[in-house]
Amino acid sequence: MFKGGLLNHSRLLFISSAICISGLLNMAQAQNCSTQNGVNLTDPGKSFANIIPRDQGRLGLCFSYAATDLLRSHTGATSAFNVFDAAVNSDEDADGGDPSGVMKSLINRGWACTDTYKFQNMFPSSQDNILTELEKISMDMPVFYTNNLSTGEARQKRIADKAAALNKAGGCDLWNGSLTVSSEIDQLYKDVDKLNSKSTTLRNELNALDWGWVNYLSGSRDNSEIQKDINAVKSKVKTKENRLDVLEKKKDTYEAKIAGKYDLDKYNEDDAAQIVYYWAKKTYPLMRSAFTKYGVDSKQIPTFEQYVTERVKKDPVNEYAYAGRMYGYKVMKQAIANSCQPPNRQAIRKNITTKSLTVKNALDGVNRIKGLLEKGNPQGAVLSLHSSFITKGTWTDGAQDNHAVVVVGCRTVNGQMQLLIHNSWGQGCGNIYKNYSCTGGRFWVPATSALQASSEVEWLEN
Asked: How many CB atoms lie within 10 A of CB 352?
């Protein structure tokens, strides 16, 4: 009885130990990127379980969405952080910012604004907000692009000053002349239409006379008189058409120069200033309307001269793709700075540090992310990669990165390690992704390929 009890007790200990070891093995396996289950921070109880992919809409704020989501996961905050406040808080140069800059600036400040705060209703949603509207408007402004930052930036500043001076001088030929020519062309076409209509009426009258439908006793004109009027009308039409030919050629010249907003380096500074002035005159009223629509104080709305010099002078001259999109950030910094007050603030402890790795080869990047996800307290990382890697566009090795995402998981399928990407294009998948396994706005991608398409890995440490 006693021996049997000891034996049964030993068996129980063995079984319990086996279960414990099995549990530990399963736990280890669950935290291992080399298994098919892998690591998934979106699982219940994990750091991204309650952080859903948000939709950046038409805004170029992916860096802010990725940074605030990663920082929230690290701090355990219950509410999402406001991406607009985070973006302008870190974006000192108004060049769009970067994930590390966003996280560092919020940590140094010691708090983040809640996602529900609207900044005086300037940001009702990611689709409908002042930055989206300003971005659409500013895309019509000229873009500077140069490979020589020192001379290129000095040149664009001179052009900006000249464009601002044109407004004080009453305009320029490109603006005034193009408007005059367009107006005259419109009027000439109307005149020609009227003359052609009159000619048709006269020909009908002539035809009626030829067929004997007109009662001569009523005083109707003979055909020679009508023909004379027809010839006079034809002469006027010819004169106006000749003038139209001249004006259309002049209009083509103006339009070619107007379209040169993407090739300002091909024009001398005076012509480039006229191009900048033209597009500023087109967009400035729209910009003012946008500010008024979203309730911005009129004192914060820039003058035309400020609009031209700020919009042009401070564009990043070596970033062609984004140079046309930064004006909204610059202007909004003053409008929303420090406007988020308690109870809309969420505290962030200041003992968090930002870390980054420049990806020189894919293996280093993969190992860094793998190490972060396989930690005892696993965490994600921000990845800066080329957006066409995840869309249906074409990506080539070495292409410039222009999109920020968060890596929130890893696994190995058929011998290939994959990363789970937490994006900022909403919770749907639609047809924007390549043939990746996608659910709720998150998708699995080949790890090595993803790092080949990336420039930097960024993460947080206590």
From this structure: 17
Q: Is 166 exposed, middle or buried (0-12, 13-18, 19+ CB in 10 A)?
A: buried
Is the pLDDT at 148 greater than 80? The verdict is: no
CATH class of 62-109+348-461: alpha beta
List the single range of 98-112, 260-274, 290-304 with lowest mean pLDDT: 290-304
Q: What is the dihedral of CA 321, 131, 425, 99, to 10 degrees?
A: 70
243 vs 301: CA distance, rounded Å: 43
The domain spans of the chain are 62-109+348-461, 149-336
**Which of helix, strand or coil describes residue 252?**
helix
Question: What 8-state DSSP symbol labels residue 347?
Answer: E
SS3 335: helix
User: Residue 56 and residue 123: Cα distance in Å, rounded?
Assistant: 12
Quote the CA–CA distance of 103 and 83 in Å, as a whole number: 11
**Rounded Cα gap, residues 107 and 264, in angstroms:** 41
Does residue 201 contact residue 221 with C-beta atoms inside 8 Å? no
- Give the mean pLDDT of 313-317: 53
Average pLDDT of the segment spanning 64-93: 87
Residue in 115, 134, 80, 445 with CA at minimum distance from that of residue 284: 134
pLDDT of residue 307: 83
Query: Which H helix or E strand runs over 194?
Result: helix 178-210
